[in-house]
Automatic annotation (TrEMBL):
The gene is pheS. GO terms for biological process: phenylalanyl-tRNA aminoacylation. The keyword Magnesium applies. It comes from the Bacteria. NCBIfam families: pheS (TIGR00468). Residues 107-319 form the Aminoacyl-transfer RNA synthetases class-II family profile domain. InterPro entries: aa-tRNA-synth_II, aa-tRNA-synth_II/BPL/LPL, Phe-tRNA-synth_IIc_asu, Phe-tRNA_ligase_II_N, Phe_tRNA_ligase_alpha1_bac, Phenylalanyl-tRNA_Synthase, tRNA-bd_arm. Belongs to the class-II aminoacyl-tRNA synthetase family. Phe-tRNA synthetase alpha subunit type 1 subfamily. Coiled coil: none annotated. SUPFAM superfamilies: Class II aaRS and biotin synthetases, tRNA-binding arm. Binds 2 magnesium ions per tetramer. This is Phenylalanine--tRNA ligase alpha subunit. It catalyses: tRNA(Phe) + L-phenylalanine + ATP = L-phenylalanyl-tRNA(Phe) + AMP + diphosphate + H(+). It comes from Phocaeicola salanitronis (strain DSM 18170 / JCM 13657 / CCUG 60908 / BL78).
Length: 344
């Protein structure tokens, strides 16, 4: 029997299995009630008395080593199963194409980067706002058209106090109001974010779009400061040869106000269909912060002055990439998005 046990010990040390079924077959062969080891133990009673101690020790060693070997093989299979547990067999086969950044994010990040290098920090605010911060503190007249449901999405109305109407913000100027409420000058922030207006969706307009507005409030801020900052931005964004033009305009929250054009970077200012043969393309609105806005936000307009500007991210993206249909930015057509891989 000792010879048989020694052979089995060597055999057990070499046990292998390719899968769980083979491992179970080995367990049954050696460790089940009708297995080899139980058969040897049943035959133990026939061993001479003088050999029982030695044979018994060997039998126990054989059983222990067999159990350990089978347990080790089982652990190997369990580890393999754990490694495969995260695989989704319904996923698209390799290779999986890498995505790209959205063109609006590319342009937004470029705008933020330029103004960050000019000393501006980022301010953020809620998209669901109250009338107080969107309109009232921005010096909008009580009967201004922007306060009508034809122009603004209303979430909740308060007939007793219009300043408590809850709306989807129509511009990120509300972030400027909130910033001025809690911060004393000097203030130098940009306010990027999504805004909403009740407009018919077409290739030229959408019910939501993205803005980046800027605000600088301090002592002795002048229109010259505004012009120089916007010139620097235009040349950083569209090239060092870019020129700017400021035309008088009107906004409730700035006085004086202006629309800013840049020289057409397609024709170099010579005139083309893109700029309607004028040589200029409008990109943003700007102006000196109206004293009424400063006072409404808790800043002394007799001590401080400031300028503000705002631009549509889609507008800048259209100028850079010549996208003809505004709706393409929100349709998630991968064929369109793949065109901007090089812009990353």
């Amino acid at each position: 029997m000792l010879t048989k046990i020694e052979e089995l010990l060597q055999e057990v040390d070499q046990l292998t299995a390719q899968n769980a079924e083979e491992l179970e077959a080995l367990r049954i062969k050696y460790l089940s009630k009708k297995g080899i080891i139980n058969a040897l133990m049943a035959d133990f009673r026939n061993v001479p008395a003088e050999q029982k101690k030695q044979v018994g020790m060997k039998l126990n060693e054989l059983k222990t080593r067999t159990q350990e070997r089978i347990a080790a093989l089982k652990e190997t299979f369990e580890n393999q199963d754990a490694d495969m547990s995260g695989i989704d067999l319904t996923r698209t086969a390799y290779p999986i194409g890498l995505g790209t950044r959205h063109p609006l994010n590319i342009v937004r990040n470029q705008i933020i980067d330029i103004f960050s290098r000019l000393g501006f920090t980022i301010a953020d605010g809620p998209e669901v706002e109250d009338d107080l911060h969107v309109f009232t503190k921005m010096n909008f007249a009580p009967d201004h058209p922007a306060r009508d449901m034809q122009d603004t999405f209303f979430v909740e109305t308060n007939p007793d106090d219009v300043t408590k109407n809850i709306i989807l913000r129509t511009h990120t100027s509300s972030v400027q109001a909130r910033t001025m409420e809690v911060t004393q000058p000097p203030i130098r922030v940009i306010c990027p974010g999504r805004v909403y207006r009740n407009e018919a969706i077409s290739y030229r307009a959408h019910c939501f779009f993205h803005q980046v507005e800027g605000l600088y409030v301090d002592k002795n801020v002048s229109f010259t400061d505004l012009k120089q900052v916007l010139l620097q931005f235009a040349q950083e964004m569209f090239g060092p040869e870019t020129k700017i033009r400021l035309r008088p305009s009107y906004f409730p929250f700035t006085e004086p106000s202006a629309e800013m054009d840049i020289s057409c970077h397609i024709c170099g200012g010579e005139g083309c269909p893109f700029c309607k043969y004028t040589g200029w393309v409008e990109i943003l609105g700007c102006g000196m912060v109206d004293p009424a806005v400063l006072d409404a936000c808790g800043i002394d307009s007799k001590v401080y002055s400031g300028y503000a500007f705002g631009m549509g991210v889609e507008r800048i993206a259209n100028l850079k990439y010549k996208v003809k249909d505004l709706r393409m930015f929100s349709e998630n057509d991968t064929r369109f998005l793949e065109e901007f891989e090089a812009a990353n």
